[in-house]
Amino acid sequence: MISYNFLFQLLLLSPALVTARPGFVAYKEKTCNDPLEMWSDGVPIPDNTLRIDHSIKEWHSHAAGHYYDNVTLPAANATGNFDKDAGIQFAYFKVPEPDPGCQYLLMRDSPRGWQILTKLPGIEVLNVNKEGCYYTPLSPNDDLITSFCCGKDDCAIANIDEDQGGAKETISGGSGVAPNCTIKRKYNDRPTRTNGQQFAVTKPQTCEAPPTCTHSISNSRMVSTTISHSQSYSWTTTDGTDIRIDGGPDILRVGATMSYSIAQTWMEDTGTTFTQTNVTATEESDRQEMGTVAFFSFTPEYDCWTGDVSCGEDSDGKEVVLGGVSFCQPVPSNAGGADGVYSMVYIS
What we know:
This protein has helices at 4-13, 59-62, 152-155, 258-270; strands at 23-27, 39-40, 43-44, 49-51, 66-72, 92-95, 102-109, 122-128, 132-135, 142-150, 169-172, 182-186, 192-195, 199-200, 205-207, 215-216, 221-224, 226-229, 233-236, 242-245, 248-251, 276-279, 283-284, 292-313, 319-330, 340-346.
C-alpha cells in the first residue's frame, strides 16, 4: 500500500501539480513579449522573475517583503530623456491576476529606516490589483522589494493615494487635561534618519501624449513634527482622567493633547522647535511613460529620537511609563520645505 507521506512527497516534486508562486516577470517592451534578463548581486535572477512570496504584514520574519539587492538589467533600453531621466531604463513587468482583494507591490529599498513612521519597507513604485504588463522606471543597481497585501486593513498600508490618517488618542473625564511628561531614558543621543509615510501629491492620471504627462502637485499635505508610539496605552490618572493612545505615528497639531505634551519635553531636550510645512509647490514633468496610469508621490525624511517617557502616576499610584516613544522632526530641504523623495507610482 502506498503511504500518504509518499503521495505528499510526490505532490511536492511534481511540477504539474505544484502551484507556481506569483512574480514580476521582466520584459523589454509594453506588450511583454521580449524577455528582459535581470541580475541580483551579479547572479542571474531565475526566470527573470522577482518572486512575490512574502506579505506586507511579515514585518518580523521577512521585513515585509522579498529583497533583491543590486538589481541590474543589462539589455534594458534607456528612456532616451537624458536631461531628466539620466540612467533610468525601460522595464516592463508581466504580473498575474492577484487573488480577489489582493494587491502586488514593487518597491525600491531605501537606505533610511522605515519601521518608526511607516510600515512600507521601501518606496512604492508599482501597485497592481489586476493582471497586466506594467511599466516601471528602474536605475542600474537599484535594491528592490516585492510584497503583497490582502484585505482592506492590510492594503491600507500600501494604498498611499488614500489618506492613511494617524494614531488616535482620547482624553476624557476628570480634569480632561493631559499630564506633563518627562524623558525617562533615551535610546539614542543622535537622531536616526528615517522615512515618513509615502503619500500621493497628485491624483492618478492617464498619460496619452505630452503635455498630459506633466504632474503638478494638487493634493496639499502637511509634514510636521511627529510622535510615534510603538504600542497602545490606556490608563486613568490620579485626578480621574481616562487616557488612551493608539500605537503608530501621530502628526502633531498644537494643543492640549498627550502627543503634544510628550513632544514638548523632547523639544526641550533636543533643542528643536515645533515644525510644520505643506508639500504644495513643486512641479514634476516628463516622468510618466505614455500609455500608463500613475500618480506622483512624496516620501518625507525625518530625524527621530527614541526613548521611554514618564507621564506621572495612574489612579493606583504607579508610575506611567510609555516605552519606545519616538520623537521625529522633518528634515528641512534647501528650499526651506520638507526634504524627501518624489517618485511616480504606476497603477496601470
